[in-house]
Amino acid sequence: MTLVVEDGSGLTTAESYASVAAADARHSALGNSAWTGTEAVKEAALRRATAFMEQRFRSNWRGTRLTRAQALSWPRYAVEVEGWCVASNEVPADVVNACIDLALRALTEDLNPDIERAVIREKVGPLEIEYSAHSPQAKRYSAVTQALAPYLMGSGANRFVVRA
Fold it and tell me: Three-state DSSP class for 156?
C-alpha cells in the first residue's frame, strides 16, 4: 500500500507527514544507520510516527486546521512562530523532521505502549531498585517535543498585551 503523504493541501487520506525519500535523506545525512528495511517497513514506521504525533499533540497545536475534513493536524492557519506566519499550505520542516525522527524509533519500539503500574521496589538477589512514586510512567521523547515547542500552545516566548 502506497504511503499517502500530506502535501499541504489538507488531504483527507494523508497517513504521514513525511515520505520515505525524505526520511532516507535525513537519516543518511545524520548518519543513522539503523534506518533500514524495505520500503513497506519504512512506510509502516512513518505511519506509526504520525499516529503518535496525532495522539500526543493534536489538541496542543497552535492555530486551526485548514479544513475540517483533513486527515491530519497539519496544514494549519493562524500559526505564528518567532514572529513569522507559517503558510497555511505547508507542513513545517520541524513537523516533518519530528515525524522522521520518531519513525526511526518506531522501527524498534512501541511509541505509545500501554502503561503498567509503577514498580515501587524490586529485589533480584543483592540488587534492589525502588522507583519514585511521582515519576512519569510513559516514555517521553524530549528532543521531538523541544523541536515542536514553537508550534505548540503554551510554549515559546511570552507576549505582552498592550491596551489601546
Answer: coil
The cell numbers describing 152, all together, are: 505548540
CA distance 162 to 164: 6
pLDDT tier for residue 149 given thresholds of 50, 70 and 90: confident
pTM: 0.79
Question: Does residue 77 contact residue 64 with C-beta atoms inside 8 Å?
Answer: yes
**Cell 510513559 -> residue:** 138
92 contacts 151 by C-beta, under 8 angstroms: yes
* Under 8 Å between Cβ of 41 and 115: no
Q: Are 50 and 95 in contact (CB under 8 A)?
A: no
**Residue count of the chain:** 164
Q: To the nearest whole number, what is the mean pLDDT of the chain?
A: 88
Reading the block at residue 100, the C-alpha cell is 522522521
In contact, 77 and 63? CB cutoff 8 Å? yes
